[in-house]
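Q: Can someone sanity-check these two? First one:
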Amino acid sequence: MRVLAAMSGGVDSAVAAARAVEAGHDVVGVHLALSSAPGTLRTGSRGCCSREDADDARRAADVLGIPFYVWDFADRFKEDVIDEFVAAYAAGQTPNPCLTCNEKIKFSALADRAVALGFDAVVTGHYARLSQGVLRRAVDDDKDQSYVLAVLNREQLSRAMFPVGDTPKPQIREEAARRGLAVADKPDSHDICFVPTGDTKAFLGARIGVRPGAIVDHASGEQLADHDGVHGFTIGQRKGLGIDAPAADGRPRYVTDIDPATGTVTVGTSQDLRVSAILADRVVWTDGTERDEPFEAVVQVRAHGGLAPVTVHPVRLDDDRPGFRLDLHTPLAGVARGQAAVLYRPDTDGDVVVGSGRICATGDAVPDVAGTSISDGGSARAR
């Protein structure tokens, strides 16, 4: 096959490209320029997609003997990833930009261009596996990225290749060294590539501005402090709340709710964080099978979270969009709107991805499957 290897400049994508070459594919390497000013992206061990990453990707392509190009996706990245990230925080949500980048850049914009140019698939260094078009967890649980890939539909997955998902990370580094790839010991990137300082709150504040509001107590409704904007908070947050006095019982306070309309941030106990129901929109059935009836699954609600058993109820939302309600068998704490709820098959010990949705309501704000109203004024009805 003729395949396009997305080379980020890290060890995983370099080895993925090398394995594609070794498998006999006609491979072309490409690095995505995601900023009109690459120097503003983070560098070193905390980087991703910076100028130094482009240089590392080019050197890896030279070692592999494959053509290499840099494609400018800066405008698309700003519109689809950065702007959406800022808007979500302004709306009191906690988005995952890596998930959005996979959905809209790497496996949409990039894949579409690749197909238009005659490529059969896009190769990446993601830690996940594909088995007959079905997305599965990586062998290395610590590096598994099936969660951030679960927004991909069956067609997008049919054009994807994940060559490193069957190998633990330490062995990938050893393989890179054997192949003479200089990135063998390059530290993993982490955090958000487009936040140069690592200070997400400051990054958001510079774009959203000051939007004052109140921090109130969950139980009493008492105002405890003021704040400059809901973008500085996320559900489950404990530190940096700006509250001078401890709780009356001396226990820690956590953010339990964020209301962007009024600017109110509610704090309470760890017990107040627990929810037994989740409503999700933007549904993607990753395995290609549409669901109409309730079924059992296990859910992961954050990138590095554990699995929890749920009963899934497919519903139609107020504008007839598909959604699903999750009834948790055991309550979960710190479930944030804007994150993905990724469903896995329980009979595979959570190995096979079923689908995903964006968390849009939790707890008391979730309708029952008969269709009561939800907190933002919409409604859902059973399908």
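And here is the second, same format, sequence then tokens:
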Amino acid sequence: MSDIGIFALLALATGVAAFIQGAVGIGFALIVAPVMGLVRPDLLPIALLILMLPLNGYVGLRERDAIDWKGVGWVSMGRLPGTLAGLGILVVMSANGLNQLIGASTILAVLAALFAPVFQPGRSACAAVGVITGVTETATGVGGPPLALLYQHRPGPVLRSTIALCFLVGELVSLAILAVAGQFQPHQWLWALSLLPALAVGSITSRMMHHRLNARRLRLGVLSFAMISGIVLLIPR
């Protein structure tokens, strides 16, 4: 595929994913990471983490009155050790191995999201999710499903705003540690910047539509796409 074709595909995935995340609260990394892993795995996880900063800042600010601040604090406390573990995985793993890790993580996340029982998140659950999210998001860019499981039975504004703020804090931590470890490449920044217009379109559209959408059907659609993408990534190349 040509660079123009790759850019068009990534821009489409970014815009659609930003719309879904803004409307439902999850979905951005589940959509963009597998697509990016298929066409430009060298961009992961840096470009994906950079794109998620303005998206989650926007969603968190939009519904800031509904944020569960205690939950954000406990998740963030668990994030640091998880981030260091994720960095270790990223350093030792090959591009093909990383693709397979993304695929397996995506599939497991989908299964957990579909079949996890209802529960009320406490301090220990929030901290544990912080550790898991730190590992998976730093290594692969995919960190949303554990947080979605934590808040999936809370009202939509609480889920969207709290997950967005947890992401924002965690992504800053992950990017700082990846920068210190020398994992940044200039082309990753350039690709992320070039995809910002698509991100903005999807985010703004979600603001106009998120009250009108059937969140359950949209969530099932995201999970179905993620499952298929994860299976494709597991196929050796």
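A (reply): Looked at the second one. DSSP finds eleven helices and no strands in the chain. The chain has a mean pLDDT of 84.
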